[in-house]
Description:
InterPro entries: Ribonuclease_T2_eukaryotic, RNase_T2-like, RNase_T2-like_sf, RNase_T2_His_AS_1, RNase_T2_His_AS_2. Helix content is 26%, strand content 21%. The chain has 220 residues and is an alpha+beta fold. The protein has a single domain, classed as Ribonuclease T2-like (Ribonuclease Rh, Chain A). Strands 1, 2, 3, 4, 5, 6, 7, 8 and 9 form a nine-stranded mixed β-sheet that branches. A hairpin with an 8-residue loop joins strand 4 and strand 5 (162-172). The chain is globular.
Amino acid sequence: MDTEQDSLAELAHLLPQMSANDCQDPPKYWTIHGLWPDKGEDCNRTWHFNVTEIKDLMLDMRHYWPDVLHSSLNRTQFWKHEWDKHGTCAASLEVLNSQKKYFGKALELYQHIDLNSCLLKAGIKPSSSYYKMTAIKEALTRFYGVTPKIQCLPPEEGEIAQTIGQIEFCFTKELQLRNCTSMKGGSNPVEAHLKLGTEELSVCNDTLPTYYPSEVQDHQ
């Protein structure tokens, strides 16, 4: 793990390319995807996820860190995945060296960023109209003082607009906001392609119209 930087990524709350059956009652606000070290995955496979260690966080976890792709019966599987893959690596930092600290700090950073309010104040809200990606980036950079990484779903066949899928904020090892820039060597979650269900997210194209969906649609 490279302890110089850690990255927080937030999962978009609505993805119109997904059918209603794939997204169980999606929340109408941005939620957490995870808190990821820049390098390293599955760092300690003997350190198993234990949901009882985050019982005090459960209300916030269910609200701000839901699994929107699976039924409520399996909601802890998403948290287990994030802990196994990323949390066991992030735990090399003292501030994140337990399951309660890891999930609790991610929730704290989420509240501090308050992406929902920021976008609304900038006049950017779910709509059937398109936005310019450069305008979205400028609004976020102006508000936070750093440049986040925005990922999108590419246009479907016959469509002209990409769809916002995820916004990532990056932090130093002291958990202070920093610009999201690619690192030399190794994989970097702010640059990597991500798989979400059957759809693929990648860094947004600045020149394409951008759709911030207002509701889940079932595309035929």
